[in-house]
Amino acid sequence: MAALAPFDINDLKRRMQGAIASLKHDLGGLRTGRAASSMLEPVMVDAYGSAMPLNQVATISVPEPRMLSVQVWDKSMVKAVEKAIVDSNLGLSPATEGTTLRLRVPELNEERRKELVKIAHKYAEAAKVAVRHVRRDGLDIIKKLEKAHEISEDDQKRHDTEVQKATDAVIAEVDQLLAAKEKEIMTV
């Protein structure tokens, strides 16, 4: 009979942290009423005969909570950058001053904020489901090891408790991230 996969709580924890990393990325993409340089990451500029990310032709900064500043390095690229931002459907219209573009981030209305909170909840629920799948995998491994008499019943119970504690900790972290994002979205 082939040896069963050993039980490794650290591997399970690492896989659960993957769900957290994915959630952080998803929540980071949700636009709040505040300016963030990451808002302009998807913008591609037609520069020097090819499409380039905006951050490769300009410096993006956040001088005020509701303002983005784009400092274009090459004066001949200003119009192309301006066009790329307008065409990006982000709802931002640049005010150009020489090689600097200022982008005012409009406030979100109440209805849009509530929609964003619902989306954040969906992301959090998906992360919780992923964590529960990892827990189930871990518990299955433990059960098989006990059935094959590779670990004792006491070890099985101890490992089950370990897996549940790890799961509870990660679920609590998901809830914290969601609460923080929800507060950020609803802050006017």
UniProtKB/TrEMBL annotation:
Q: Name one Pfam family in it.
A: RRF
Specify where it is mainly localized: cytoplasm
Per UniProt, subcellular location reads as: Cytoplasm
Extract the CDD domains matched here: RRF
The keyword Protein biosynthesis is assigned to this record: yes
Which intervals hold domain Ribosome recycling factor?
A: 23-186
Q: Which UniProt keywords apply?
A: Cytoplasm, Protein biosynthesis
Could you tell me which InterPro entries the record lists for this protein? Ribosome_recyc_fac, Ribosome_recyc_fac_dom, RRF_sf
Function noted in UniProt: Responsible for the release of ribosomes from messenger RNA at the termination of protein biosynthesis. May increase the efficiency of translation by recycling ribosomes from one round of translation to another.
**NCBIfam families for the chain:** frr (TIGR00496)
The similarity comment for this entry is:
Belongs to the RRF family.
Name used for this protein in its record: Ribosome-recycling factor
